[in-house]
Amino acid sequence: MKTKMVKRRPPAPRRIAKLWQLRLYVMDQTPKSVTAFANLKEFCETHLKGCYHIKVIDLLKQPQLAKGDQILAIPTVVRQLPKPVRTIIGNLSNIEHLLVGLDLRPAT
Amino acid sequence: MKNNGFQASALKTLLPKCPTGIQGLDEITGGGLPRGRPTLVCGGAGCGKTLLAAEFLVRGATQFGEPGVLMAFEETEKELKANVASLGFDLEGLVRRKMIVIDYVHIERSEVQESGEYDLEGLFVRLGYAIDAIGAKRVVLDTLEVLFASLPNEAILRSELRRLFRWLKDKGVTAVITAERGRESMTRHGLEEYVSDCVILLDHRVNDQIATRHLRVVKYRGAQHGTNEFPFLIGDEGISVLPITSLALNHKVSAERIATGISRLDAMLGGRGFFRGSSILLTGTPGTGKTIVSANFAQAAARRGERVLFFSFEESPDQIIRNMHSIGLRLEPLVSRDLLRFHSARPSLYGLEMHLATMFKEIATFKPQVVIIDPITSLMDSGTDSEGKGMVTRLIDYLKAGQVTSLFTSLTQGGHTLQQSEAAMSSLMDAWLLLQDYEGNGERNRVLYVLKARGMAHSNQIREFLISDRGVDLVDAYIGPSGVLTGSARAAQGALEKAAGLSSQQEAARRKRELERKREAIERQISGLRSDYESETMELRRIDEQVGTSTLMLTSERTASGILRQADAKVAVHARRRARKGTVKS
What we know:
- The complex is a heterodimer.
- Chain A is of the alpha+beta class.
- Chain A is built from 4 helices and 4 strands.
- Chain A has helices spanning 2-8, 12-16, 31-47, 95-101; strands at residues 20-26, 52-58, 76-81, 86-89.
- In chain B, strand 22 and strand 23 form a beta hairpin.
- Chain A binds chain B through residues 1, 25, 27, 32, 35-36, 39, 59-60, 63-64, 66-67, 70-76, 85-95, 97-98, 100-102, and chain B through 103, 105-107, 110-123, 125-126, 128-129, 147, 151.
């Protein structure tokens, strides 16, 4: 798994130039959800400034959307673009894991 | 077992139950799974967990009008539909009619990165959404344990599962959760800790190269249940669990008697044949005519207009028809009128459970009054002894419940000793006929006798069993000091007795003639003597007459001489005397 990620890692600047589409699945305004959104926002501002788009989906209001992205855990971030699709679960408090999950840094 | 859950819930003392509709399972659990609670179904690979869960949903939707949600973690919706279609379940149609919702949950560990805290609210949302969409009463989670492989944080997972089961109970849905069997615990990840109301264990064991599935209700909180292991089948109509021992011995019995097709055999059975609905065992060594007796029985029943189902595990239907034709039994018209149906299969074709399932199915569709199984022993050989006996018990229970008369033939290995399986089987049977060979005088003859016949007077005699091109006949065998005589020995003995009878008759006639002769001789003697007697009487009379005349002459002479001498004084006296003599003489 790790070697695979190393191989696939493209040069970082070219990648960031693209538009990132991120979906954040939350459930109501729970502390976890609020924390996750704040963490994601901060992360994107730091690493993907200007080329990202976050869509927040509240499953309490739209439960039917959970099936499409195979959502089990809340909160979940799904990277729709660039391909391939990446999924990160949790309140995103661990930046290291988030970087690895979004292919921005190889797993150590 | 068609009492539905609403009736059960009406009885306040009992736990409300949710009928599964699965044949036999509701009997074991006393009405179904605990309503509104989760049930754990665990077992190894390939023992039918998913099918059991799917059938629970399908039957709920079709038979009890309870919609259901199937949350699949292993198989996709398409795969599931295809898999259960082989059991005749139209999952596709049920999904279209909104009776069932299938939600395939897929989560690949390699594609998921963890960062910080989370919970499984997404799963709850999806499940809740599906339940609310169709108003589901039943939920299946198959197989939840996949999550342990997909999600790295086991602590979160465990606490979330605990919450999930609590949540399911609060929702009031009857849930079935499947889980893989663990090495030491019941499930690999200890799910039994969370689901404690009802646990069903499935098992797939191979014994003597034949695999049999078993089901056991390990735990059922608040209700009585059968704790034994019950074999179950996955047939083309779903799962059927077969309780080895029928829950009650309360078959209706009939006093009606039915003829066997062999009039002399009827005579041996109190003159009227077997009871309807009884189970009859016919044992015999090879070539003693078991199939012939069965075919006679079948023909007699079919001619009465009854339906007969003939399970043959050795011969094909055409072969039986041809062979029976040689003894004057014409079965093909009965087959074409659909009164007689054959079902032939090799015992080794599939396992015992499958045989039983197909037999049940045939019986259920054809609804026969008479069932013949020829021979039961070759079928029993394809399982272990206990399985075989269990199978026969189940079969007999099933047949008796429907008042079907059953005839089982059983092949013995020769000699007088009975096989163990037979001795075991015989206690289940109401009547037992024995066909045997008698060897002697360079020939082999068949004999038949009634070993037992419950509830009727029956002959204790051995009868010789004759097979000719006109059919079957039973004749008395000679029983003498040299044992039972059959065949030509019986004929020779018959001739011998006939000759002896003839000679004694002749002897009597001779003696009679002799006596007659003697009597005649005596009679002749008597008549001779009589004529002698008569002639002597005549002689005697003549002598008397002579004497009288001479006396008279003498007297008259004297008188005359007296007169001559002039003795007048005495003349008067003489005259008086003479007169007296005359009266005496006369």
